[in-house]
Amino acid sequence: MKRLVRYLLQGLLYIAPIGITIYLLYVIFEFVDGLLKETLDRFLGIQIPGLGLIIIIILLIIIGFLGQTYIGRPIRHLFDKLLERIPILKVIFSAFNDLFSAFVGKEKKFNKPVLVLVNKSLGFEKLGFLTEEDLSRIQEKDKVAVYFPHSYNWSGELFLIPRELIRPVEIPPAEVMKFIVSAGVADWD
Fold first, then answer.
1. Pairing of β 166-168 and β 156-162
2. CA of residue 168 relative to chain centroid, distance
3. Cα 93 from Cα 89, distance rounded (Å)
4. Which of 62-76, 102-116, 147-161 has the lowest mean pLDDT?
5. d(Cα 149, Cα 114) in Å, to the nearest integer?
6. Hey, which of 6, 105, 128, 178 would disulfide with 148, CB 3.0 to 4.6 Å?
7. Which of 127, 159, 135 shows the shortest CA–CA distance to 146?
8. Taking the complete model, does pTM exceed 0.70, yes or no?
């Protein structure tokens, strides 16, 4: 009986990550595809699975292209003026804009993994990402900003750390993030 339970748990261990990944992809697909479902159904009269997703991807590519050309500059200028007039909107927009830019923009900020000495006497260290080396704006010459993602969560904490307590890690940033988010159980590729 113990062997059957062990096989059951082992089977669950093999299937659960695959099943959860497929389920999450399905939920995301359904959500994005469903954003245009009613509109497309009205125009076409039939439902084509995935067409909404394809149209959204094409629209995002076009918006990205237009934003990078001379056509997008006046629109960005108008939007910047609007943000100047509504301060709370500017705070919210700039925070999200900076966050997305840190992950996928030209100025990726999560590309310098570091080890931080947390407890010198015990030798405890913590993995994080160096996000800012110049903290002179807040009168901190000898400190740097290090972001620590939480394990099994999409949040983290920012610490200002003395420079001498950090050291670079020569591992691809994506691998470090995967390792941290998985609480250290992810395999190194």
1. unpaired
2. 21
3. 6
4. 102-116
5. 12
6. 128
7. 159
8. no
Going through the chain in order, the beta strands assigned E by DSSP cover 113-119, 124-132, 143-149, 156-162, 166-168
CB 145 within 8 A of CB 109: no
* 180 burial via Cβ count (<10 Å: 0-12, 13-18, 19+): buried
- If DSSP states are collapsed to H, E and C, what string results for 28-44? HHHHHHHCCHHHHHHHH
Question: Cα–Cα distance between 167 and 157 in angstroms, integer?
Answer: 18
In contact, 156 and 149? CB cutoff 8 Å:
yes
Report the DSSP pairing between strands 156-162 and 143-149: antiparallel
Segment 6-48, tens digit of pLDDT? 888 888 877 877 888 888 888 888 888 888 888 887 888 777 8
